[in-house]
Design goal:
The protein has 5 helices and 14 strands. The chain has helices at residues 3-19, 192-204, 220-228, 240-243, 255-263; strands at 33-37, 43-45, 49-54, 61-62, 67-68, 79-84, 89-91, 96-98, 106-112, 117-121, 127-133, 145-149, 159-169, 182-188. The strands form 3 sheets. Strands 3, 6, 7, 8, 11, 13 and 14 form a 7-stranded mixed sheet that branches. The protein has a 4-stranded antiparallel sheet with strand order 4-12-9-10, with no helix packed on it. A 3-stranded mixed sheet has the order 2-1-5, with no helix packed on it. Helix 1 (3-19) packs across helix 5. The structure holds calcium ion (2 copies).
C-alpha cells in the first residue's frame, strides 16, 4: 500500500473513530506514584498523572504525591533522580498554556535529607533535577516538596498548574532506561470539578498522545513513522516498540495503532489545533 493510499484509508478511519469517541468519567487519585522496572529495565510509573492540592495556609507547598517502589527494584548503591521536561503550564479550560517564568508563576521542587537541602525550579523548558540514593533494600520511597511561587513578592494566582517530569536511575550495570514523561496536576484555589476536568484531559490527551516524533503535535510526520513500520510484528521494548509506532505496545503495528493516531489527529498540548504544519 502506498503512503498516499494508506493516508486515504486513515482519513476514513479517523472519521469513524471521532464519531465513536467515548468520554469516561473523571478519575482522580491522590496517592504515590508506584514505580517498577519492565523487562527491558525501563522505569515504569504506574499512573501517568496524579493530582495534588496546594493551600495558602500551607505556604503553597505540598509533599504529595510521593514515589514508592518494592524492595529490590533498583541496584543498591545507585540513585534515582528526576528531570523537569518542560515549562510549567496552566489550565485554560480546554488545554494547558505555557507559563513564562519571568512574569508568571514557577514551581520549586525540593528535598531535605540528613545532609543536604536540594532544589530545582521550573524554567522555560528542560531543567535537570536532582538525585536521591536508593535505600539499602533496593527500594525508593520518597516525597519531594513542591512549592508554587508567585511573581516577585506576590502570592501565586489561583489556578490549576501542570508539572511534566521523568525519572532516571544512575545505574549502568544494568543500564536503566528513563521513564516516559508523567504529570502532576496541582490545584490552588479552583473548584474541584475543574481539577478533575484538567486531570481527565491529561489522561485522555497527553497520557495517550501518539506523538511519535515528539514535537507536541499529532500530524502527518507521526503518521509517516507509523506507515514506515506498518504491519511489522516484531515490536518489543528492546526496539522501543518499533520506534513508537506500536502505540498499543502489543507487539505489532496495525489498525489499533492507526486508530490511536486518527483519534488524536491535529491535537496539541494547549488544547488547540495545530496552527501551522511547520511547527
Ligand atoms: Ca508529532
Ligand atoms: Ca500495536
Amino acid at each position: 500500500m502506498t503512503i498516499l493510499k494508506m493516508f486515504m484509508f486513515f482519513l476514513i478511519i479517523m472519521t469513524f473513530s471521532l464519531l465513536a469517541r467515548a468520554h469516561g468519567g473523571p478519575n482522580l487519585h491522590e496517592a504515590d506514584f508506584g514505580i517498577e522496572l519492565d523487562d527491558c529495565n525501563k522505569i515504569q510509573v504506574e499512573s501517568r498523572v496524579l493530582g495534588s492540592e496546594l493551600n495558602a495556609s500551607n505556604f503553597f507547598w505540598t509533599a504529595e504525591p510521593g514515589f514508592d517502589s518494592h524492595a529490590d527494584t533498583f541496584p543498591i548503591g545507585s540513585s534515582v533522580g528526576f528531570n523537569i521536561l518542560d515549562a510549567m503550564r496552566k489550565w485554560n479550560d480546554n488545554g494547558f498554556d505555557v507559563l513564562d517564568p519571568n512574569i508568571e508563576e514557577t514551581l520549586t521542587i525540593s528535598f531535605l535529607s540528613s545532609t543536604d537541602f536540594v532544589t530545582s525550579d521550573t524554567n522555560t523548558g528542560f531543567v535537570a533535577g536532582f538525585e536521591i540514593p536508593v535505600a539499602g533494600d533496593g527500594s525508593w520511597h520518597k516525597h519531594l516538596g513542591y512549592m508554587l511561587n508567585g511573581v516577585g513578592h506576590n502570592d501565586p494566582g489561583k489556578g490549576i498548574y501542570l508539572l511534566e517530569i521523568e525519572l532516571y536511575c544512575t545505574s549502568n550495570d544494568p543500564n536503566i532506561v528513563n521513564s516516559k514523561p508523567f504529570w502532576i496536576v496541582f490545584n490552588f484555589g479552583m473548584p474541584e470539578q475543574d481539577h478533575h476536568n484538567a486531570i481527565h484531559w491529561i489522561e485522555e490527551n497527553l497520557a495517550q498522545l501518539p506523538d511519535l516524533e515528539q514535537d507536541g503535535y499529532i500530524d502527518f510526520k507521526d503518521f509517516s513513522i507509523l506507515a514506515s513500520q506498518w504491519l511489522n510484528t516484531s515490536c518489543d521494548c528492546w526496539n522501543n516498540w518499533c520506534d513508537g509506532a506500536d502505540i498499543t505496545e502489543n507487539g505489532g503495528v496495525d489498525l489499533l495503532d492507526l486508530t490511536k493516531i486518527a483519534s488524536n489527529w491535529l491535537k496539541s498540548l494547549d488544547g488547540g489545533e495545530e496552527k501551522n504544519s511547520s511547527n
